[in-house]
Design brief:
The protein is of the alpha+beta class. The chain contains 19 helices and twelve strands. The relative contact order is 0.17. Bound molecules: adenosine-5'-triphosphate (ATP). Its EC number is 2.7.11.1.
């Protein structure tokens, strides 16, 4: 989710720039080299002499400064620690996840009781046009947005909207930032450099497109927000003269990405804890016909829980005892490593594949030949690939696909070339490896779908009796903690690690992996090139062209009002845009946009 721009000292993987020199030279060219190299990358992060390339200014922009405001609880007694030391094959059953949400409620209560930091850090220009909320501090930054922590203003006209939220996260997008940039990442992905428009025309179309993209994100987020505790809740949307405000539930822990960097890797229990919650979120989205398309550790946010140090920290053979951070005790039904409830965020690349009302694919029109109609199962499988990459990375600490050369990396992703490299994978169970293999299957027909993954034996490994006992104990401990707040007991976060070359390289690997999968999906769906238009058509249908109006009842997002934001598209007809797109695609290669500062080209 977080931006990897020059301010953060991004590694230019493609051009092997100065920061890449921190990564050990690649001396081999076989399939294993990548994993050795990436492991070194992550070890660099943890090593005491690793160089932080983020300058002090950029550090002030990082998104992990939430820990100063998180509620605090007391430490555990030795007896409790012993209870929890009794680890083993433990995991979460679906039913147990509800207890995680009880835990979250507790923290929400604590926030307000403590009444911490309700005064703004300073005057924010974004506050001037914002209604109903008071901005307190900046907590994150995306490529096109700033994210703030805010509190509802009491007695505001829309106070009813926020009654469940004592604090919110507000993603603020400045309209002028959009006017020169097209944030529709997939359009950039498919489209060649802009055609020769005159300046006004270009600016106009760019603005329109950007607004579409913001509204699309809002509509999809709103559509998926209900009935799933593992999706960051949508609260409200405001548009002012200068800004768009996307108001959502605040998650106090930050990104799972930072936790992987900090802990080097997660135990199988903790990996299962995180991935199961992600799977529940994806199950919910897929059941609504919506595909996320940008699954990565940066888009997984979490609520922090008490960190309980292990009495005897377990080390893997591959660990450096000097630098491996103890993950602490894993408590079934609660979490571990300071990670409690996990929620999926960032719907900027999400896409509706089929309407739950009609079960017909979106974006298709009457005259489209059956062979170019999207097969929704393929589209959904993009998310399963993303889940596989996240699971692999959590288990060993480096991503499945990596290469400094962008072309080689792309090839490896397309061919599904990855290994369970020794010694890092030696102590990881066959069950976990099997789950990864079923997710990182190149052929989408053979790749797990979400139901198959949720039924995976490794994901469901637990002993009911023991789990129940542990769950009861965990609940008792939570109750004790409620009366023993105000002592800091969360894991320290060294936010400088997040912008090390290693961490940036890991982010890039995910962005590229997801992008390649999206391209593969579109290639599969679009043997006649027309598929590249599907998203445009979809928007046109949903957002109000004359064609859309006539199809309003069958193609709008579930539960959403077509006219919710009074958006009217002022663009060309589908046919004209199809012709333009065909013309452009035939003439050009595609380029990868999501990594600012990089010039990467793909031959289609
Ligand atoms: N609901 C939230 N609770 C807590 N932190 C959040 C929340 N939403 C976003 N953030 C923080 O702000 C950062 C940027 O948010 P987000 O990724 O949504 O912006 P973005 O513009 O979509 O980024 P990009 O497009 O570059 O991926 C996140 O990485 C996260 O650290």
């Amino acid at each position: 989710m977080t931006k990897n721009d020059g301010d953060y000292g991004a590694v230019d993987v493609a051009n092997n720039n100065k920061h890449s020199t921190n990564i050990e030279p690649n001396t081999k060219s076989d399939g294993n080299t990548k994993a050795i190299k990436t492991t070194n990358i992550i070890r660099k992060v943890k090593s005491p002499d690793s160089t932080n390339t983020a300058d002090s200014d950029s550090e002030s922009k990082i998104s992990m400064n939430l820990n100063i405001n998180i509620p605090t609880v007391n430490s555990k007694t030795g007896e409790e620690e012993n209870e929890n030391e009794d680890e083993g094959a433990s995991s979460l059953a679906s039913s147990q996840l509800s207890s995680l949400n009880e835990e979250q409620d507790i923290y929400e209560d604590e926030d307000t009781e403590d009444g911490e930091l309700i005064q703004p850090e300073h005057e924010f220009s974004e506050q001037l046009e914002l209604q109903n909320f008071k901005i307190i501090n900046k907590i994150g930054e995306g490529a096109f947005s700033k994210v703030f922590r805010a509190v509802p203003i009491e007695d505001s006209p829309n106070a009813f909207l926020t009654k469940s939220y004592k604090e919110v996260a507000i993603k603020v997008i400045k309209k002028t930032d959009l006017s020169s940039l097209d944030i529709n990442k997939d359009h950039l992905f498919h489209e060649p450099p802009a055609k020769q428009h005159n300046k006004n025309e270009k600016q106009h179309s760019s603005k329109t497109s950007s607004k579409e993209q913001v509204l699309k994100e809002v509509m999809i987020h709103k559509a998926v927000t209900n009935n799933c505790d593992n999706i960051v809740a949508f609260v409200d949307f405001q548009e002012s003269k200068t800004y768009y405000y996307l108001i959502q539930e605040l998650l106090h822990g930050g990104e799972i990405f930072g936790e992987i960097v900090k802990l080097t890797y997660f135990s199988e229990d903790l990996s299962r804890h995180v991935i199961k919650q992600l799977a529940i979120a994806i199950k919910h989205m897929h059941s609504l016909g919506i595909v996320h398309r940008d699954i990565k550790p940066e888009n997984l946010l979490f609520e922090p829980i008490e960190y309980i140090p292990s009495l005897k920290p377990k080390l893997r053979k591959s660990d450096d005892p000097q630098t491996k951070v103890d993950e602490g005790v894993f408590t079934p039904g609660v979490g571990g490593g300071g990670i409690g409830v996990v929620k999926l965020a960032d719907f900027g690349l999400s896409k509706q594949i089929f309407s739950t009302n009609t079960k017909t694919p979106c974006g298709t029109v009457g005259y489209t030949a059956p062979e170019v109609v999207k097969d929704e199962r393929y589209s959904m499988k993009v998310d399963m690939w993303g889940i596989g990459c996240v699971l692999y990375t959590m288990l060993c600490g480096f991503p499945p696909f990596y290469d400094e050369k962008i072309d080689t990396l792309t090839e490896k992703i397309s061919r599904g070339e990855y290994t369970f490299l020794a010694p890092w994978w030696d102590e990881i169970s066959n069950g976990a490896k099997n789950a990864v293999m079923r997710l990182l299957e190149v052929d989408p027909n053979r790749r797990y779908d979400i139901d198959e993954f949720l039924a995976d034996p490794w994901l469901n490994t637990f002993d009911c009796e023991r789990e129940k006992e542990k769950l009861d104990n965990a609940k008792k401990q939570i109750n004790k903690r409620r009366s023993r707040r105000n002592k800091k007991f969360f894991m320290e976060r060294d936010s400088t690690l997040l912008y090390s070359p290693a961490a940036v390289a890991m982010r890039d690997a995910f962005d590229i992996s997801n992008a390649v999968q999206r391209i593969e999906e579109d290639k599969r769906d679009s043997p006649y090139i027309l598929g590249a238009l599907a998203e445009d058509e979809e928007e046109e249908f949903r957002l109000g062209s004359s064609t859309a109006k006539s199809n309003k009842n069958t193609n709008n997002l579930n539960g959403l009002d077509d006219d919710m934001f009074q958006l009217k598209l002022d663009t060309s007809t589908i046919l004209k845009r199809r012709q333009e797109k065909n013309h452009n695609i035939i003439q050009n290669t595609t380029s990868i946009p999501p990594i600012p500062g990089k010039s990467i080209s793909f031959i289609t």
